[in-house]
Every structure is written in structure tokens, then in C-alpha cells.
Amino acid sequence: MKLLPAALATLLTAFAATTAIAGPTCTAPQEKWMKVPDFKARLEAEGYQIKTFKITPGNCYEIYGFDKAGKKVEIYFDPQTAAVLLAK
What's phi and psi for 47, nearest 5 deg? Predict the structure, then answer.
């Protein structure tokens, strides 16, 4: 009986870790993606300050930085259209 709580705790921890790193998935072929310098320039023209840019494991663009109001943001974008997929 003591194994059940430990097994449940392990399962919940694994699920929480997977959920925490999961983000949107983008499926457009890479040759159709917006070029990174063009993407960054577009966001900066909209008032964003990009501190970190990366391509996620799900093949989306992700930025960490600040919006035009100075609020911290973490945003996932479609690399083809630059549409916001998820904002935190």
C-alpha cells in the first residue's frame, strides 16, 4: 500500500513536468517561415522589446521580453504568419 502514494506522486510529477514544457506545435514547412530578422523587425515595429528569441521544440517562434506597455511577455508565434498562438 505504501507504493501507491509514491507511484502516484511520481506520475503526477512527470505529468506536471511534461505539461509545463509543452507549447503550441507549428506545422508549416520551414521554407515557408518568415525570416527571423524580418520577424524580429516586425515585432519591434509593433513596440515589443525582444530579450530572448528561440524556435521551440514544436517549431514555433517564441519570444521573451516586453510589450509596448513595458509588461513582461512570453509569446509563441506561428513562424509563417507571425500570428500569436499563446501569450503568457
Answer: 100, 0
Burial tier of 67 (Cβ tally within 10 Å: 0-12, 13-18, 19+): middle
Tens of pLDDT, residues 54-75: 999 999 999 999 999 999 999 9
Q: In the predicted model, is pLDDT for residue 14 greater than 60?
A: no
Distance of CA 47 to the CA centre of its chain: 19
Handedness of CA 26, 73, 66, 50 (dihedral sign): negative
- Cα separation, 76 vs 70, in Å, equals 18
How far, in Å, are 7, 9, 21, 36, 47 from residue 74 at the CA level?
33, 29, 13, 17, 14
> Which grid coordinates are listed for 71?
509588461
Q: Of 20, 19, 25, whose CA–CA distance to 85 is shortest?
A: 25
Q: Which three cell numbers stand for residue 88?
A: 503568457
